[in-house]
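Design review, sub-item: ligand-bound model
Attendees: FS, YL, KQ
YL presented the inputs for the uracil complex:
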Amino acid sequence: MATKRKPPGDASPFLPERFSLPKLREAAKSCHGCDLYIAATQTVFGEGSSNARVVFVGEQPGDSEDVQGRPFVGPAGRIFDEALTKAGLERKQTYVTNAVKHFSFEPRGKARLHKRPRVGEVRACSPWLRAELDVIKPDVLVLLGAVAAQAVWGAQFRVSQERGVVKPGELAEAIIATHHPSAVLRAPDSEARKRIFKELVADLRAVKKLLQD
Ligand code: URA
Ligand code: SF4
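KQ shared the predicted structure:
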């Protein structure tokens, strides 16, 4: 007899009946929509105002974010803040979140190494992102890196080919994908580091311009 496979779960049973950012944040604390909650410290929900006109979506919390419970507060967050400042944007005018709300990692001795979330985990977590966007209804949605971009545009999307291109979509009138701030940290040499940072800033300047139009 064939064994019955358990259907893959997702976050939807954990969503509150009515959406508001405080209600979503509270409910997300006890999400078991995929297995990532088991090893992670806590849910790292998005942060910012429900009136924000721009939403940034990263990949998943890193080690520091997992410990502090806030998105983009570690090394990638510092690059992100620097790029925002260079582009004339302020973090407090924005809403910042991740495609996946729990830290996915590989233990290596005492360290916890970032592990790219699986497609199934991104899919399982997407009801939270969709709910955040449903409340905020941003004018501009910025996808930081391949995981966030593929969460919205599908697995075929290539950030290397399509970064900086503004496209309309269901989730916002203007959607733009750019480098993940960690790509600056992972660059193989200082020339690549400078180039990636410059491109990230240029894309954020385009975001600033969209907000002014
Ligand atoms: N990288 C991300 O994608 N998100 C964070 O919150 C931190 C690092
Ligand atoms: Fe739920 Fe997302 Fe955490 Fe998985 S990663 S348990 S879907 S909040």
